[in-house]
Amino acid sequence: MSTLTITAADVNKLRTATGAGMMDCKKALTEANGDFEAAVDYLRKKGQKVASNRADRDAKEGLIIAKANGTTAVAVMIGCETDFVAKNDAFGAFANAVADVAIANNPADAEALLANSMDGRTVGDNITDQVGKIGEKIEVSAYATVSGDSAFAYNHPGNQVATIVAFNKVVDAEVGKNIAMQIAAMMPVAIDKSDVSQETLDRELEIARETTRAEGKPKIWLRKLPKAK
């Protein structure tokens, strides 16, 4: 009766190829009787199983990565369940890799992004692999793209806020960068007043009224603004 021997070199090779943990790699090789490709398939199936089990979880944490190539800018949010995972360097590298795929292909929406190729497989398949490695729900929580004669992206430190902006003419790089930063800082709801709904104006005006009342300012500050045309 022969005894299967799984060496440290075998485990390390599988870990390098898949990014899975040492113990998971050893178990995969054992289950696959030492067959490397079968062990890879085992880990992928494990990721699918974990993804299925965690489908109803909330991926409220994560990172948002914005990238631009001059005329197009994309922003991708990769969600996870915990802040601990979001701050992990490997997770950050993965989120950046997905954003690289997005800026290279400029998919129309998140569904199209998931179908794009990444390291020989789809982005969606790679996300499933990450679920198996990390043990948390991982998803593309949000995706946006803009294009124009000039496009810029800004990533605020920590990658919890990012902005993308496009212009219908060529804009100086420093100007574009500064505008993207101001968008991140001010969070405007529109480009100008004509793009703001009356409902939004009324709500903000009421907040201003309450604030001025609380501060004891004269009623002249409470005059009603004309409706947007």
Short description:
The chain is α+β, with helices and mostly antiparallel strands and 229 residues long.
CATH topology of the largest domain: Tetrahydropterin Synthase, Chain A
Number of strand segments:
7
Report helical residue fraction: 40-55%
Strand content: 15-25%
- Cα-to-Cα separation, first versus last residue: 86 Å
Which class best fits the helix and strand makeup? alpha+beta
What is the CATH first-level class name of the largest domain? Alpha Beta
Query: Number of folding domains?
Result: 3
Q: DSSP helix count?
A: 9
Calculate Rg over CA atoms: 24 Å
Major β-sheet annotation:
3 strands, antiparallel
- Sequence stretches where pLDDT stays below 50 over 5 or more residues: none
Tell me, what's the shape?
elongated
Q: What would you note in describing this structure?
A:
- With 229 residues, the protein is of the alpha+beta class.
- The chain folds into 3 domains: 8-53, Helicase, Ruva Protein, domain 3, CATH 1.10.8; 61-186, Elongation factor Ts, dimerisation domain (Tetrahydropterin Synthase, Chain A, 2-Layer Sandwich); 193-222.
- It contains 9 helices and 7 strands, in the order αααββαααββαβββαα.
- The protein has helices spanning 8-18, 22-31, 36-53, 83-86, 89-105, 110-115, 123-134, 173-186, 198-215, and strands at residues 61-68, 72-80, 117-118, 121-122, 139-147, 150-155, 162-167.
- The chain has a 3-stranded antiparallel sheet with strand order 1-2-5. Strands 3-4 form a two-stranded antiparallel ribbon. A two-stranded antiparallel ribbon has the order 6-7.
- It is elongated, with a radius of gyration of 24 Å.
- The mean pLDDT is 85.
